[in-house]
């Protein structure tokens, strides 16, 4: 059975993007980017909401991005090789290969996907992850705490969920970013 892993870059005050919807402050160093690439390498399926998918699809639709460095090429190849499921009521088509579009997030379908998968599954984007948290589907949280306060924006973690976590690993990067890997102790939504 696969784990469903939520990965997020977050400001120290808990936001994935600032009040203006910007996340340029999350640009990783090479050390940090290599680490993220290796985390993503272990997954074969990625679940995204519309906005996160549109952010990530450039790894396939913009060949110049992969051409910037061997590290970026490696990430692009991993991302393109993964199966992607995009959950959106407004998106009509997808622009990348190995991508399926779903109108609604069905917790039971995700439970079945986890049971059938041999490899861990990544879930990206705080809005989609909030649905998975509330359904008790998240097995691990991989949080990258970036040393910045943005003062507001989109929260990395959902409101109205109480969930105990067990710290499994931590790592500090030279740029001051801290990686925290937690396993959930399923408590469900409150």
Strand line-up across the major sheet? 5-4-3-6-1-7-10-9
Distance between the termini: 26 Å
CATH class: Alpha Beta
Q: Helical region count? A: 7
What do we call the CATH homologous superfamily? Dihydrofolate Reductase, subunit A
Helix content: 25-40%
- The rounded Rg comes to 16 Å
Which CATH architecture would you pick?
3-Layer(aba) Sandwich
* Most strands sheet: 8 strands, mixed
Q: What is the string of SSEs from the N terminus onward?
A: EEHEHHHHEEHEHEEEE
Count every beta strand, where a strand is a DSSP E run of 2 or more residues. Answer: 10
CATH topology: Dihydrofolate Reductase, subunit A
Number of domains: 1
Outline: globular
Task: Classify the beta-strand content into a percent band.
Answer: 25-35%
* Class inferred from helices and paired strands: alpha/beta
Unreliable sequence segments:
none
Mean pLDDT: 95
Task: Report on this structure.
By secondary structure, the chain is α/β, with parallel strands linked by helices. Helix content is 31%, strand content 31%. The chain is built from 7 helices and 10 strands. Strand 9 and strand 10 form a beta hairpin. The radius of gyration is 16 Å and the shape is globular. The mean pLDDT is 95.
Topology diagram in text:
Elements: E1 4-11, E2 15-17, H1 30-41, E3 43-49, H2 50-56, H3 58-61, H4 63-66, H5 70-81, E4 83-87, E5 99-102, H6 107-116, E6 120-124, H7 126-134, E7 140-146, E8 154-155, E9 164-172, E10 178-185
Parallel strand pairs: 1-6, 1-7, 3-4, 3-6, 4-5
Antiparallel strand pairs: 2-8, 7-10, 9-10
Helix pairs in contact: 1-5
């Amino acid at each position: 059975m696969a784990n469903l892993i939520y990965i997020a870059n977050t400001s120290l005050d808990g936001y994935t993007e600032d009040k203006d919807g910007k996340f340029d402050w999350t640009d990783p160093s090479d050390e940090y980017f290599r680490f993220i690439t290796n985390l993503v390498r272990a997954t074969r399926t990625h679940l995204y909401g519309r906005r996160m998918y549109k952010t990530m699809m450039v790894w396939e639709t913009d060949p110049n991005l992969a051409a910037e460095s061997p590290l970026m090429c490696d990430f692009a190849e991993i991302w393109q090789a993964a199966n992607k499921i995009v959950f959106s009521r407004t998106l009509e088509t997808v622009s990348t290969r190995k991508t399926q579009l779903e109108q609604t997030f069905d917790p039971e379908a995700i439970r079945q996907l986890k049971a059938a998968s041999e490899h861990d599954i990544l879930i990206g984007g705080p809005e989609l992850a909030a649905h998975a948290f509330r359904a008790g589907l998240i097995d691990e949280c991989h949080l990258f705490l970036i040393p910045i306060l943005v003062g507001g924006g989109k929260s990395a973690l959902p409101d109205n969920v109480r969930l105990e976590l067990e710290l499994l690993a931590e790592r500090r990067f030279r740029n001051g970013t801290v990686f925290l890997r937690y396993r959930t102790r399923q408590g469900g939504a409150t």
